[in-house]
Amino acid sequence: MEQYSSKVMDHFAHPHNVGEIENADGVGTVGNPVCGDVMRLYIKVENDIITEAKFKTFGCGAAIATSSMVTDLVKGKSIKEALQISNAAVAEALGGLPKVKMHCSVLAEEALKSALDDYYKKKGIPSPVRISADAGHEHEME
Amino acid sequence: MKKVYLDHAATTPVHPKVLEAMLPYFSNKFGNPSNLHDVGREAKDAVEEARAKTAALINVKPEEIYFTSSGAESNNFAVKGLVQANSQKGKHIIVSQLEHFSVLHPVKTLEKSGFSVTYLETDKAGLVDPADVAKAITKDTVLVSIMHANNEIGTIEPIEEIGKITKAKGVLFHTDAVASVGWVPVDVKALGVDALSLSGHQFYGPKGAAALYVRKGVRIKPQIEGGIQEDGRRAGTENVPAIVGLGKAAELAAAEVPHRMSYLTSLRDRLQQGLAEKIDHLVVNGHPTRRLPHNLNVSMWYVEGESMLLFLNMDGVSVSSGSACTSRSLKVSHVLTCIGTDAAVANGTLLMSLGMGNTAEDIDYVIEKLPPIVQRLRDMSPLYEDMIKQEKVR
């Protein structure tokens, strides 16, 4: 396997925004323990701006690092801006990911989308978010 | 920083005495064993001495040993070579589900070319039931291949019992002993096998030298053709320094196995006990007693293996993880699947394999370092959070 970038190792060893948010405005859980990674992302929203983001993740080094990075990226963003954050942006911000770990960045994107979807539902607004059923695992290979 | 290497199942360091024995064959004694002149003769003699030492370790005749490049090559040679040379007898093969991929993949290839294969299940400790082997054998069975000890969970299979069955039924029997030779006694006469694979770098020899024992009189089809080496059964100029190293490693093992067993069993038990005392929701995989003395395979709930491996590495500790996320396939170990380990738990597996260079101090260091890593990762794990909440509800 390719080695992790120093940025990935840094976010893995010292992850940002670990934890829960009580009474979060949006919570999303994606992944499957059988596949080896589960991400839960919490967001706090004020006046359409994401003021706080936290996560809990069960997974490999890349899963923890992408969780840390996506919560960093989303803080201070508007809901609309947050919806634009892609897995590629998360991977790029980490200085790249080994090919076999790209699915972790997809999972981070899906965890964010799932939290945003939950936010819309709690608000009673029709959700524009589309989440794939097998979030993060379409890249599995034999 | 302190360094503790607990990944001897991946590879071992070359023993200083092995290295010393090898060195002349890179320089002064560089000959090709196939040559008749003195330079070639010297290399030939060294290869034959190594063959005798390797044969002695497993109680067979030197002429029954074929040198190869790796355990994987030995397994491929055994499975394909025995089946192809004896296919007039039948087209059925029996293996266990927890064989190494270097047995399973050649078997799959044979399956695609028209052979039928029975993949035997094991019990939760990883043991094959000899009665299942007896039941699976038909008139069409040409080969049974069951590993001596499993490389991941360390379970030692009932090879002697299976050997009696295959002998009575007249079926060829190969065992992959790559994980066990050098760590526990391996006596081919007692095991009753027709072929056996072993690999030098697994027990203080160098990488690049391994062997396949094939009982005298058993037909085997060469897989590498075009040379007279190894009695015409394995072409290619011999890797003389590595073969000399394998021979020396075999000689050392023959003298040391009982000591290795008692020393490593006590260290391993210390590690197992220490971790089990400090980490809850920990499962020891494999058989409680019938297992390799230096093997400890543990699964910890709510944490993922690679994360533990990376944090341990930061503390100078080298281990392997059996988690899906580290293998290219992103699939849980087929061995853990075979013994019925829950897939979610299997992702939190560490394989720790000890060696003679490890001390009690090393073990205590790991017992000190791993539990806080597990706790830290659990505090980060949504699965652990859910479990705690559920326990509160109860």
Structure, explained:
The complex is a heterodimer of chains A (142) and B (394). Chain A has 142 residues and is of the alpha+beta class. Chain A has one domain (6-122): Sufe protein. Chain: A. Chain A is built from 5 helices and 3 strands. Chain A has a 3-stranded antiparallel β-sheet. Chain A is globular and about 45 Å long. The two termini of chain A are 15 Å apart. The relative contact order of chain B is 0.16. Chain B is 42% helix and 14% strand. The termini of chain B are far apart. Chain B is an alpha/beta fold and 394 residues long. Chain B has helices at 16-22, 38-57, 71-85, 101-112, 130-136, 159-169, 188-191, 240-278, 305-314, 334-338, 343-346, 360-379, 382-393; strands at residues 4-5, 65-68, 92-96, 116-120, 141-145, 172-176, 195-199, 210-214, 282-285, 295-300, 317-318, 320-321, 349-353. In chain B, helix 2 (38-57) packs parallel to helix 8 (240-278). At the A-B interface, helix 1, strand 2, strand 3 and helix 2 of A face helix 9 and helix 13 of B.
